[in-house]
């Protein structure tokens, strides 16, 4: 088994991922290097099954830092499973991969990390889940709709559904993420309407009373610039995927839409924001 790792500058990571995924339709592994300044995307396969290097370099373009090819030991599958561990969130949610046993004392979410981008253990996802889990459910059913921008594996939208929010929707640039969200939602007994949408080139973002946006800084700024479809500014936007040093910039970008910061969480070097429309 061969591991092909492509390392890119963090500020270009989201755009690079959108170009890279068509070359690796089964998904990529994502990790951070150099204190978060470099993002590594890795794909696995037998010799001859991996994307051609010229195609990879063309997709990554000027953001390329390094390409590293290594041979993976025979026990890589077991070590990959060991990497994905369950997490507890705010004493309410238990997010686990399918090979871990269910917990009956919390709301149980099972997310298959083999389909998309992990189970929710990354700091940015956990911060989103913490804010979401502590948010009171609106008394008005019409105010409970959810839009997950960049839904990935669907974990945020699915968690919202478990917490009583509905209807649930999500968008992602990659078809594999759309499929993963639908499959994970079905496995959890909720329904998420997921579809493809390009946050960079698609114009105004789809919206709902609650918008979940676990995106890197460049994509969050794209959403802030383009605004929301039909000027449908959410009641609450939970934004993450940003470094603590970027939080003020993101809060200011969405303030132009009348959204006011009411909560800021930090874990390691990462931050998440709760941005609300004043009542």
Major sheet: order of its strands? 10-9-8-11-12-14-13
Structural class: alpha/beta
Q: What ranges have pLDDT less than 50 throughout 5 or more consecutive residues?
A: none
Distance from first to last alpha carbon = 56 Å
Judging by the overall fold, what is the CATH architecture of the largest domain? Answer: 3-Layer(aba) Sandwich
Strand content: 25-35%
Number of β-strand runs? 14
Radius of gyration: 18 Å
The H-and-E topology, N to C, reads as EHEEHEHEEEHEHEHEEHEHEE
User: Given the structure, what is the number of helices?
Assistant: 8
How many separate structural domains?
Answer: 2
CATH superfamily of the largest domain: Vaccinia Virus protein VP39
CATH topology title of the largest domain? Rossmann fold
Using the coordinates above, name the CATH class of the largest domain: Alpha Beta
Query: Quick one: biggest sheet?
Result: 7 strands, mixed
Mean pLDDT: 87
Your description of this structure?
The protein has 279 residues and is of the alpha/beta class. The chain has two domains: 2-79, Alpha-Beta Plaits (2-Layer Sandwich), CATH 3.30.70; 114-276, 3-Layer(aba) Sandwich (Rossmann fold). Helix content is 27%, strand content 29%. The chain has eight helices and 14 strands. The chain has helices at residues 13-20, 53-60, 76-83, 123-134, 155-162, 175-187, 217-226, 247-255, and strands at residues 2-9, 29-33, 38-45, 64-71, 87-89, 93-96, 107-110, 146-149, 168-172, 192-196, 210-214, 236-243, 260-267, 270-276. It has a seven-stranded mixed beta sheet, sandwiched between helices. Helix 5 links the parallel strand 8 and strand 9. Helix 4 (123-134) runs parallel beside helix 5. The chain is globular. The mean pLDDT is 87.
């Amino acid at each position: 088994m061969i591991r092909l790792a492509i390392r890119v500058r963090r500020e270009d990571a989201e755009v690079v991922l959108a170009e890279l995924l068509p070359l690796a339709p089964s998904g990529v592994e994502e990790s951070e290097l150099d204190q978060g300044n470099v993002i590594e995307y890795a794909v696995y396969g037998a010799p001859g099954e991996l994307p051609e290097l010229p195609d990879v370099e063309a997709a990554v373009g000027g953001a390329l830092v390094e390409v590293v090819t290594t041979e993976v030991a025979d026990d890589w599958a077991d070590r990959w499973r060991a990497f994905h561990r369950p997490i507890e969130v705010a004493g309410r949610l238990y997010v686990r991969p399918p090979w871990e046993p269910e917990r009956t004392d919390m709301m149980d979410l099972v997310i298959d990390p083999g389909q998309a981008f992990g189970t929710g253990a990354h700091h940015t996802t956990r911060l989103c889940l913490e804010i979401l889990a502590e948010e009171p459910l609106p008394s008005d059913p019409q105010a409970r709709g959810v839009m997950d921008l960049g839904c990935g594996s669907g974990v945020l939208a699915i968690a919202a559904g478990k917490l009583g929010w509905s209807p649930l929707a999500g968008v992602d640039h990659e078809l594999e993420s759309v499929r993963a969200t639908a499959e994970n939602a079905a496995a959890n007994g909720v329904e998420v309407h997921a579809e493809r949408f390009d946050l960079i080139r698609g114009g105004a973002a789809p919206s709902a009373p609650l918008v979940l946006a676990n995106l890197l800084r460049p994509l969050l700024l794209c959403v802030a610039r383009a605004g929301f479809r039909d000027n449908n500014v959410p009641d609450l936007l939970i934004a993450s995927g940003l470094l603590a040093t970027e939080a003020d910039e993101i809060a200011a970008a969405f303030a132009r839409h009348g959204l006011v910061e009411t909560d800021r969480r930090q874990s390691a070097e990462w931050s998440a924001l709760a941005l609300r429309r004043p009542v």
